[in-house]
């Protein structure tokens, strides 16, 4: 990922562009309107396999040649997609055995989007062939600055139960475990009498009478992701062999749980991500921040592309809430604040037909005389003013652990409580960090944690001995660690740790766990929060308690009711030069506030004193800092800016004097050429 | 449908009759009891294929000969069914490839009801063969007055994904679109790369990874209905070639959404309908009224047969609420009031076995010494007193638009909000018209609307340019039109109209729509209803708002909260000689009252001043009018009748003097030989 | 079942033991800990097929020889399982046609638990082969005191739609009905035209367009259970031919509705049962009591084995609530009180891997330094003090009817109300009996009822003429009968009785039913309870009313609202020397209290005067009675004990003087060597 940034010294701006939906007169208008909107970059080609290769082995590139020439003439860069996310109808007809099979054995056909069986040799060959032809032809086209392989790997389908998958799964397992003894041990096949005697007996985790072997299921999630990654790499390498532009594929961060973005990021030249608000979430901007932070973290802090988001409503949620005036701009700047150097949309012009005709676009069905288009033009102007931010980086003192494999494992059946959801817990802990105006990285438990003052593990159900040792060393070296309950239950094979739940963290946390104590549906209990020197407070507890036994930790809070009444609800343990907290309670975001505040104190973190609902994130360049301020509330606020002499607001192009006034829903970007008077206090 | 009424100058009365369930002694008793109940007509034969053709090509008509003779001797007319809704067990065993396949490819077998694959040549041949043999044999039997093809086409299954269906679908598409270019254009296959290169690539809308092409799905709904209609026509024509009695098939009005009754009605000689209350609906009689009005409308105002309803509970709903005393009679008279000239039940005698043994009947399990049988006898007596109403017609000043194809389209996936349901909206608008005591036709948007004072479009998601022109001309000619939100979004291929949502109605409504603004689940907002000269009122809004921009219309109500706060919630526009309203809000029935009241004023409609909960519908004959009055409340009411001198109440056979007293739950039928003093004021 | 008790003159104690999960050092520790815990008995072998027969026809018994020797040396009895619940992976690979097919035709594969198709000849042969080899080898091993065939027949899957099942189903039907005429009559195939002409046309009740024939479905439930029973008998007979130890299989009482325990019990030498609390049920101990009473009743009053329960949480429920301190002991003693002479757990040591790793065990993941293990040791000590109770029996004056076939029939589709659930009704009636401290047998309606003072029929939807005659004779002979609504609707073929619902009980109850009157979802109504000489009380009624007509019975309560307002809600009828009550209302447990109290009066039953929430059950031996007292409340209580001179509390080994003090959650076992001063008053 040390690739040079391909989209220019600016914040790139644009969209997926589908000229194949339109007549030539509309396309001509598109180029005019793109200029009006300040568009710098478009993504094309992802859905054009049938146009490029109308019959197997017969190609038609003429229309694409002309399109690229036109875009180049208009000064617009192109991110050129490979079409492997949508094989043509002829592919399905010619290779029916390449179709994905569901767990129940139902083949998934054409007439939608989504790939063929990723392990199908026919599919892989066809993908490499078309990607190679594109790369050969456009390696030197001046419009093409980036390759965009596939679209949203893992969505809408990742797992495949076809015969091709069966063969590949056995091979993958043989690579992983060497022999059947290794497999039998890893999968615990003596349980329920599942011991395998030959490789031919090993199958995909298909329908079974009771639940399937959890270790097998976890390996199948790994294998399924691996199969997709192999497909990506085949296409990428075919392009690299023929062209020199960088290669990306658009991730979906936490919205596509089939993909472990941290594992994929090293395979792309530039990380790019798609993000859509969850309409039902009234605090969707916090989910956005989490996704952006996760993307930046996967990118190792390097600039990344917001490849898709929406100008207003999407179409695939139950109730597709439209964005309110100003919301699109706040969303866009939040991504920029958190490391995006390109702001792209799905899509340029709303499609009149197909599955996504109710999806918003830069040019909506209502045309250019519309709120949306006016805001699109305004955003283009704003981003143009932020070009100097390109290449600057985001720094964070806090890390939240994110381990997709643990999420997979926790999500399997027959866990202690269906109410314990890794994504929910991660979001809730993240949300309190966001409310405290702290910028957070999302890192893996085996990553180097030394640069963080605080590390929070909200959902580390699966934690290897190696990862536990890393966390222990982090604390010993002076770090502050907060671990939420239901942690370190199992190892990488979903086997309970020897010594019991939490055993690998017993040393650092100074506690061990006798038993999990889930609550009944809807039940609530109370936690008495009583740290030394503070007035006790009662926090609301739901879903979960544990029977924790002290091995040196102190009790900071106690379950006041529920099955664990009288037992520790929060513990604190000094280990080496650092401190480790354990929180075996399920607290809502308000309940996490005092817990995190206490951990901040241990970590030497002082959250900035900003108005509630104001997002502030700082990007750091060479001798200059940029702070993006976003007011997510319905009231005007004043944000104090210390030492305002050197601070300039870029959007209005005005100097800042003492405070910044942020209107309800407003936004500002401050540049400080000396070390910024940090608005975070 | 200009057929002569085959059931006599009376309101026919009867039921499905299944003597094959019973021993001869019970059958003998049946004939006695039918006379006691006043039964005039029974339907037989629908489930007797296996008895008539016990082995393929071997027939046994002797028992049916005797049965028809017995019924004729008892003076009972017969509606003779063809048995194609239940192929015999030998058919499934002999032709397994004729089974319906579900979308997932699971074959549906025997042991229930429901047809074979409607496109199966074997099924079609077998149906025509048995229908032909019946028609040949009973063309001249004096008992047989009507042919009844099949049973409830489209229920319980309409769509079929068998190989036969695939072949037929391609053929149907080729007929519709001429060539693949036409198909590709109509289906918008450039979206998500679905372009078809040969007909062999075109498939049924089977399982896909993400949602299937919506235009393909809409066409599949059309095709599936068409395939059933072809089956009907094959049987009908086989009968017509051999017999002269009229032919019907029993529809299910709005309860079988797979069938577009308006499109089928021209194919039958007499329209007949099955109707069952929705037990969970405490206002089920309003749903009944809608179904009856829809049936009459499909019949073009001609008399129709209520082919099935129930004396009390059904058996296939989650909680099968029994009818209360008097409810069966009110239900029956409501159908008569709305145009039915025959009142038939499923079924004569309750079956002791099979899937519907808990369904009520004219003779219940408890026998003749029961409330139900006593009311059955009483109803027979009542209907006998209404014989003179046969052939009179219902008139209405109001039409509600009903377009089954639009309902299909709106019901597909990925619409702006799952809470926008075409049937719900239609029922809610209809319900306020019912509360206002207005009799309503349900017509298609392309029908001639000139005879209506008011036309309401509650759910016109799909509206063609041609239909929009029809509505526009209707208003220009002096009509009053009310259009509810989410209208005219797409054309007949589910393609968004050029110019955006509502574009085809922009001229007549004087507004256009920038964006849909769905609300979150359960959210409410307020509409400030403030027509000129009225005190403002606050109406409750849920589910839906739109961003409407005025192009000449006036604002009558405004969104006071929610995403559209400050934008128009109701607009009014004078166009030509008429007026057009747009209501881009989702109002419950109470909220629709003032909106419709204002539209009535424009339309010159004065709703009759009747007590709440009293249903009054008038049928008009030659110099005589009949008004059915039904009291759906638990209180006695007095209904004023102007100029009572010439009015006679038929059920009690008494003259009416000034007012009619309706007991709680009571009923009356007024005959006025001069132009009726309209009880509607 | 006249077998000698094989587990010694003691309350046996132990668990499923899976040494195959562990290394030798852990196994060595196991034997030490078992002694510490007082373990007398373990069950082994159920999941070891792949270890015993690693390849088809190749056996390895050496490890099992050594294990049995070790256990015997440690003084531990062995219940040796046959492994037929988990065929090895090689079996599935070798015999794919032996897989269970779901109703939709999806094959269920390996990688879980659960048997192959029970009708598969390959499966049956393989089961008999391995069971025979085990029986031959261990017929004389001194450790082996009991054979344990299979595991939990019917769970997790009972029904199979494979081709093997089709063949067997036809054969079973031919045996049952003789010829097709019998089948057609029993299934009512004239309904919906389903008449069968040849046996080849008869199928499994697979997917159909509407609901399948209910009689066919009921027969399929019977057949499916029969197929499993055949499998059991094949293994049992193979063992009996080679070994003399008694044979059992572990039932699941009411928790596995696929199995009719009363029908199976005669086939086993010792009845054993698995029981797990329903975590969502805050009164789970009442469900436990019902299951235990059902098990004892199936066992004909003979001692039975609690083969599995849990020390704390299970893992397969949505929220797996852990047991609170003392709860495991109360649960265990409740089983003993109700006839269990062995208390066994799943499992000895918590598995670290596999599907049930979060299931509790005698040795939890946290090890021996844990609350759970301490309580396990304490329970072992308690049970050791109760050894003299072994072989004593429980007596009851009350019987609740339990007919699994009726439950199957009632559970089919298209019944009058989905809210009428046989298990719920049974539990609710049982619960009031429990609250009244009455010990209840669960018997079949055709059983000899003469020894009971009171018989309650909570859910007798299917009641044969023969059973009705038995109930009638019981009342005529002086018994008191209470029948709840929706009774005697159908006969054994799910055919409504001639004469209508309830007809076979018309004589004894003195009423007949005109119509069922289900209530809408969530609706409530009132019952006016007004027996002669009592103040009227209003009871809450939901779900259900009936239109009952008196034929000699008196009205004790009346529906005060709802569809049956004014009709009888409870009737009482003296018939012969006894009394019969009919309760056509759906009352919650509080509403059943006065109804049952009135029936007790008729029956001459005086419920014991014990504190609320205290469970008291008495076992009777030769000149001695043992009363187990369990305090399920959170408060201490005093239980009066009359004539305390001869009473001794066994757990504390102290004499009882006047009252027994039961701490909150506490337990006591009283021995009275003279006829016990019954604490039940």
From TrEMBL, chains A, B, C:
Documented EC number(s): 3.2.1.23
InterPro entries (UniProt xref): Beta_galactosidase_C, Beta_galactosidase_Trimer, Class_I_gatase-like, GH, Glyco_hydro_42, Glyco_hydro_42_N, Glyco_hydro_b
Gene3D superfamilies the record matches: 3.40.50.880, Glycosidases (3.20.20.80), Golgi alpha-mannosidase II (2.60.40.1180)
Record keyword Electron transport present: no
Record field: catalytic activity: Hydrolysis of terminal non-reducing beta-D-galactose residues in beta-D-galactosides
CDD domains recorded: A4_beta-galactosidase_middle_domain
First-level EC class: hydrolase
Annotated ranges, domain Beta-galactosidase C-terminal: 613-671
Pfam family, one: Glyco_hydro_42C
Residue ranges occupied by any Beta-galactosidase trimerisation domain in the UniProt entry: 397-605
Keyword Hydrolase attached: yes
Domain Glycoside hydrolase family 42 N-terminal: 16-385
Alphabetized UniProt keyword annotations: Glycosidase, Hydrolase
UniProt similarity note: Belongs to the glycosyl hydrolase 42 family.
PANTHER family with a match to the protein in the record: BETA-GALACTOSIDASE GANA
UniProt-recorded name of the protein: Beta-galactosidase
